[in-house]
């Protein structure tokens, strides 16, 4: 069975008919509600907050944010971003309470720095792994999104992104882009190894490392690896023209959305002088 991300860009896939079909499906409504409630549980919000809903679609997640009981820290105010005009049109017809923005998250998150207390994203960020043309790269789209998300959250703010990676490479690509943007990051997997398995990328701005998912607190014999420290330990002086310098330049170009040649064993290798 093909994945929707592999067929069409999201703004074309979710046309008028697909948007209505998605929103009226009781199965999808139940799954969306479960994942949104799980994301809220991981955010651990103690009071009404301003939340960014990334890939908000027709507002299924937003409805839950608006209906959180005051005894559980709600209700929350939210702003939704989505690339599909059809999905947002359905949300307007349903008279949801949040504010809506038509925007491509692969081009960034266009809000003032520190605007939001928290962010959620349900089944959206895996779309960033698919470049829609030869002029952009998935690495660049992920970089722009996570850099923008990091800036839009207040210090200490959290984001929880539920996503469906196609493979381990996509999982690593997504979490790596979040770490490079500055987030403390952890991946939590519910029901691993089953068809109902769900992945949640838990992110924190300005955290002090450790288990930011909070799921191993109190467990003995469990070590938490902070990937940000690994990157910091790699910091050293890089000489211009060296392999490390070339790799860094290529990575920088990818973050800008430019297409670069794949790395190989010859990348950065000095050529011998011949006569």
TrEMBL record:
Presence of the UniProt keyword Cell inner membrane in the record: no
A GO molecular function term, named singly, is:
rRNA (guanine) methyltransferase activity
The region called Disordered is annotated at 1-21
Q: Which GO terms describe its cellular component?
A: cytoplasm; nucleolus
Q: Respond yes or no to whether keyword Lipid biosynthesis is given for this record.
A: no
**Could you tell me which residue ranges the 18S rRNA (guanine(1575)-N(7))-methyltransferase Bud23 C-terminal domain spans?**
226-272
User: Which N-terminal stretch is annotated as signal sequence?
Assistant: none
Q: Where's the Methyltransferase type domain? A: 52-161
A Gene Ontology biological process in which this protein takes part is:
rRNA (guanine-N7)-methylation
Localization per record: Cytoplasm; Nucleus
Q: What is its main location?
A: cytoplasm
Keywords tagged on the record: Cytoplasm, Methyltransferase, Nucleus, S-adenosyl-L-methionine, Transferase
In terms of domain of life, where is this protein from? Eukaryota
Q: Which InterPro entries match?
A: Bud23-like (IPR039769), Bud23_C (IPR022238), Methyltransf_11 (IPR013216), SAM-dependent_MTases_sf (IPR029063)
**What protein family is recorded?**
Belongs to the class I-like SAM-binding methyltransferase superfamily. BUD23/WBSCR22 family.
Q: What is this protein called?
A: S-adenosyl-L-methionine-dependent methyltransferase
Q: Which species is this UniProt entry from? A: Calycina marina
